[in-house]
Predict the 3D structure of the following.
Amino acid sequence: MPARALLAPVLAALTLLPVAVTGPRSWPGGDTPGPAVRPDVLAMSSDPGGEVTAVVALDPVPPAPVPAAAVSVTVGGRRQEVRWRPVLSGPAMIVVDASAAAGPALRDGGSAAAAGFLLQLPPGTPNGLIADRSPPDVLSPVATGVAAPLRALATVTPGGDRDTAAALTLALRRAGSSAPPLITLFTTAPDAGRTPAGSLVGSLRRAHAVLAVVVIAPDARFWTGVAGATGGPAVRTDPGRALTAADQVADTLRGRYLLSFRPPATASTARLAVTSGATTTTASLPLPRTGPAGPAATAAGHRWTGLPWMLVLAAVVGLLLPAVTGTAWARHRRACSRADRPRHRRAGSPVDRPRHRRAV
């Protein structure tokens, strides 16, 4: 029996059953031996106010959530005030490909994969559900609990075309600005259509969003690049193994955290330390340029923008302009002097020779 046919009764039962949640183990402190985790900065962005947000991966994935008290950031030896939160803490927006072309994949495992991912969110995580179609729809508005989005997944009807860029934009807007959102996309498309990867990355980075993608298509290179630029994973799969891929994405995201702080304007690097019991591991954070040009410079790969490059350009133009105009003026004067000279033709030149027409 197809997975879609089993999904409705399973989801209905899940919404009625009480959920027993086992509290996570506490993070070791003091001299208690703890797991050594290596922090790795996957993506970084800044806003016009100078705040920096980094997506940090901890390897291996910790067996318990890492509290903010175990994390410190120093710049020039001075400790910074930081905000530290798991990526999975939300708001978590689920975007599901609901186009006509995605119908078979949704029926054969795509809808079950999205439902499985919802059930792996920490209790109380705000979440919402968006249908990727043209135009995109809000299937379930942002709220805590998973009963509403699970019911919406069981009743979604594929149809029409997809508009993934518009669906992601709608997800960002509905997530709000209270915290950087996690957007998890379930798609059967190899790319975002006419929307280039750089445009998607720029929009996601400006919102400090993390994009995770389950790609139910043969080619996942486009989505791997876009998700990776935001600090998120992308997993390619077949419809029948989409639920396993969703589990893999959730497992990966359990080891990823959002770190936000406001470094001094002149700082170029910071030092991140994660303490587990008596063990401390560190990583260096190269800071992006802050201020109005900060996010654009980070997303575009440090293009030649800003006042310093404008001054260099003005200096080059100032050096070259006199030489160019002087050369042009000299050529103009030589041309005028040649035009004023009298022209003398040699006798017998072709112009002076009489022309004789042969009688017919």
